Automatic annotation (TrEMBL):
Domain RNA polymerase subunit H/Rpb5 C-terminal: 154-225
Domain RNA polymerase Rpb5 N-terminal: 7-110
Protein name, entry field: DNA-directed RNA polymerases I, II, and III subunit RPABC1
A Gene Ontology term for the protein's cellular component: RNA polymerase I complex
Main location: nucleus
Keywords: Nucleus, Transcription
Localization in the cell: Nucleus
Organism: Acrodontium crateriforme
UniProt GO molecular function: DNA binding; DNA-directed RNA polymerase activity
Database matches in PANTHER family: DNA-DIRECTED RNA POLYMERASES I, II, AND III SUBUNIT RPABC1
Family that this chain belongs to: Belongs to the archaeal Rpo5/eukaryotic RPB5 RNA polymerase subunit family.
InterPro entries according to UniProt: Arch_Rpo5/euc_Rpb5, RNA_pol_Rpb5_N, RNA_pol_Rpb5_N_sf, RNA_pol_subH/Rpb5_C, RPB5-like_sf
C-alpha cells in the first residue's frame, strides 16, 4: 500500500466512524461495533486490493429506534389524534467527486425518493456549488443534509469543551414551556447551522437540552430553541 493510500484510508476511516457515531447519537439503530470499527476492519471492508479506499462501499442506511420515533412524533391535535413520527430511515452516502453540482444533488434526491428514505446525509469531498445549494429547498419533502468530509474528521460531541446536547420530544417541550410559563420564542436560541445542531440534525422549532458542568452546582441544564 502506498503512503498516499494509507493516509487517505486512515482519514476516511475517521470520517466514517464519526458519521456512524453521529447517526447513533441521533437515535438510529447502530451497534457499538459499527460505530467503533477498527482501522484494520475498515481496510478489509472498504479498500481495494491496492489499499485505496472505495467511497461507494461506505454507503449505509439505518432505521430510527422507538425512542427516536417518540421524539419526532408531533403532539396530537383535532383531526389527528395519533400523529405519525416525522422520521424514518436515513441513507448515508459518501461522494468523492472533485466538484458537486446540481446534477449530483438531484441524483441523490431521486434515490432518496425512489427508495422512500426519510433523510439523506451526503458526505462530500468538495463543497457544493452555490447553484447546487440553492436547489435543496426545492427538493423537499426530502430531508437532505450535506457535510464536508473535513467537518467529520473529529467528533465534536466528544470534545471536553462541548456540553451534552439532548433533543426534547414535543411532549417534553410542551411540559418545559408550561412549567416556566414561557412561549418558545422566549427561549435562548440555537441556529440550525450551529455545529452541534447540525450534528444532531436539529430542525427549526425543536428544543435541545444542554447540560453543562459547574464548579458550584455540579451540573446545570439550559434549553435552546432551534431557528
Amino acid at each position: 500500500m502506498s503512503d498516499e493510500n494509507s493516509r487517505e484510508l486512515s482519514r476516511l476511516w475517521r470520517i466514517f466512524r464519526t458519521t456512524k457515531q453521529m447517526c447513533a447519537d441521533r437515535g438510529y439503530e447502530l451497534t457499538e461495533d459499527e460505530c467503533h470499527i477498527s482501522l484494520d476492519q475498515f481496510r478489509a471492508e472498504y479498500a481495494d486490493s491496492s489499499g485505496a479506499p472505495q467511497r461507494h462501499k461506505m454507503t449505509f442506511t439505518a432505521r430510527p429506534t422507538t425512542e427516536m420515533q417518540k421524539k419526532y412524533t408531533p403532539l396530537a391535535r383535532p383531526g389527528q389524534p395519533t400523529p405519525e413520527p416525522q422520521i424514518g430511515t436515513v441513507h448515508v452516502e459518501f461522494n468523492g467527486d472533485p466538484n458537486l453540482g446540481v446534477k449530483g444533488l438531484k441524483q441523490f434526491a431521486q434515490l432518496l425518493s425512489e427508495k422512500n428514505y426519510y433523510t439523506g446525509i451526503f458526505v462530500t469531498q468538495s463543497a457544493p456549488t452555490s447553484s447546487a445549494l440553492k436547489i435543496i429547498p426545492s427538493l423537499l419533502p426530502t430531508v437532505m443534509e450535506i457535510f464536508r468530509e473535513e467537518d467529520l474528521l473529529v467528533n465534536i460531541s466528544k470534545h471536553e469543551l462541548v456540553p451534552k446536547h439532548t433533543l426534547l420530544s414535543a411532549e417534553d417541550k410542551k411540559r418545559l414551556l408550561e412549567r416556566y410559563r414561557l412561549k418558545e420564542t422566549q427561549l435562548p436560541r440555537i441556529r440550525v447551522d450551529d455545529p452541534m445542531a447540525k450534528y444532531l440534525g436539529l430542525r427549526r422549532g425543536q428544543v435541545v437540552k444542554i447540560i453543562r458542568k459547574s464548579e458550584t452546582a455540579g451540573r446545570y441544564a439550559s434549553y435552546r430553541w432551534a431557528i
